[in-house]
Each structure stands twice: as structure tokens, then as C-alpha cells.
Write a structure and sequence with these properties.
Elements: H1 6-42, H2 57-78, H3 83-104, H4 117-137, H5 146-168, H6 181-211
Helix pairs in contact: 2-4, 4-6
Length: 212
């Protein structure tokens, strides 16, 4: 077996550095191009082909919430100190304040008014569950602990209470009334069942076959 020398190691380091530089340049180009489309779409140039004129914050959340969730998980994975969690908690509190203001003031540019709890579940369930899976992959938390189960229990109980109120008490703001069992299957299957049940089951079967 040939022993790799310092030259081979230097080549690998140079290759990684080149890839990093290329990705940085591509990222900068994408950011600049995206900024130009924002300026043209929302600005006086009136670039109608961008479709930005009708896009409110609510619509942008459908595009950006999933990568933001993964970015926060990656941030927590790299940072070991408590400050990383403080950053995430702070951003979450700011977002909650923005949502409350969007409904209460109301701020038309947010596009929040008119969206029900059901709409928010459709928006947030998939990013939330995939971020949880990514967190376990990055070893942010390698095991399920008591506070995890408490969060899951409270979340499920809250949805159950809102569903009962929506169906039986006429809470229109929940958006649950009128949704059938099939609608619930559509809501839950892709964001919850596939990431948290199907994918771990498939990976477990592959690992068991690999050990045989």
C-alpha cells in the first residue's frame, strides 16, 4: 500500500480551498442577482415578470422558512456554547412579535391577516420536522429527553384543543372547520409521517441488512 506524502495532503487542502472559493463566488453572484430582482420587482422599474409585486412576507415564508430552519440547526451544531441557543430563542421571540403585530396593527405587507391556524400548520410542519431530523443528524441532541417529550405533548395537545374548538365551537380563526379526514392526511403525511416514521424505518432496515 502506497503511503501518501505531504504533497498529496497539500493537494487535498488546496482542492478544498478551491472548492470553498468557488462556492463563495457562486453564492455572492446568486445574492447579487437576487438583490437585483428584488430592486426591479419592488422598485420603480416595475419588473412584472418577477411576480414580486404580489408577494408579501407570508409568501416569502413559504420559500425561505425551510432553509432558515436548516440554517439555525447548523448554527446550533457548530456552536457549543449556550449563546447559540440564546440567538435562536431571540430570533424566535422577534418573529412571534412580528406575527402578533402583523395581525393586530395590521401590517398589510406581512400578509398574515386572513391566515388561520390551519394555514400556519401547513406552512411550518415540514420545516419543523425536517429541522428536528437535521438536529439529530448534527448531534445537536442525540437522544430524546424529558423536555423534548414535554414540547411534543404540549404541541399535540394544543392542536387537539384548537381542533375541537374549531369543529364544535365555531372558532373560525383556527381554520379547522370544514377540513375532512383526507385534508388531515394531506396535512400530516408529508411533513410528519414521512420524515419521522418512514425515513427512520427505511434507514433502520438498511442498517439491519448491512449488519447481516
Amino acid at each position: 500500500m502506497a503511503v501518501e506524502g505531504p504533497r498529496a495532503e497539500t493537494g487535498r487542502v488546496a482542492g478544498r480551498g478551491l472548492r470553498t472559493d468557488v462556492l463563495a463566488v457562486l453564492g455572492l453572484v446568486v445574492v447579487i442577482a437576487f438583490g437585483l430582482t428584488l430592486d426591479g420587482g419592488y422598485g420603480p422599474d416595475d419588473w412584472t415578470w418577477t411576480g414580486y409585486q404580489k408577494a408579501q412576507l407570508w409568501h416569502w415564508l413559504h420559500v425561505l422558512l425551510l432553509p432558515i430552519a436548516f440554517g439555525l440547526v447548523a448554527h446550533l451544531a457548530r456552536a457549543k456554547e449556550l449563546g447559540a441557543w440564546r440567538h435562536v430563542i431571540g430570533l424566535t421571540c422577534l418573529f412571534i412579535a412580528l406575527v402578533v403585530a402583523g395581525y393586530a396593527i395590521p401590517w398589510d405587507w406581512t400578509g398574515f391577516v386572513g391566515n388561520t391556524v390551519w394555514d400556519w400548520l401547513e406552512l411550518a410542519l415540514l420545516p419543523l420536522t425536517l429541522a428536528i431530523l437535521a438536529g439529530f443528524h448534527f448531534n445537536v441532541r442525540s437522544e430524546i429527553r424529558a423536555h423534548h417529550m414535554l414540547f411534543i405533548t404540549v404541541f399535540v395537545a394544543a392542536v387537539a384543543v384548537l381542533a375541537v374548538g374549531g369543529y364544535t365551537q365555531g372558532w373560525d380563526w383556527t381554520g379547522f372547520e370544514g377540513n375532512t379526514l383526507f385534508d388531515w392526511l394531506q396535512l400530516i403525511f408529508l411533513p410528519v409521517v414521512i420524515p419521522l416514521v418512514v425515513i427512520p424505518l427505511v434507514l433502520g432496515l438498511r442498517q439491519s441488512h448491512a449488519r447481516e
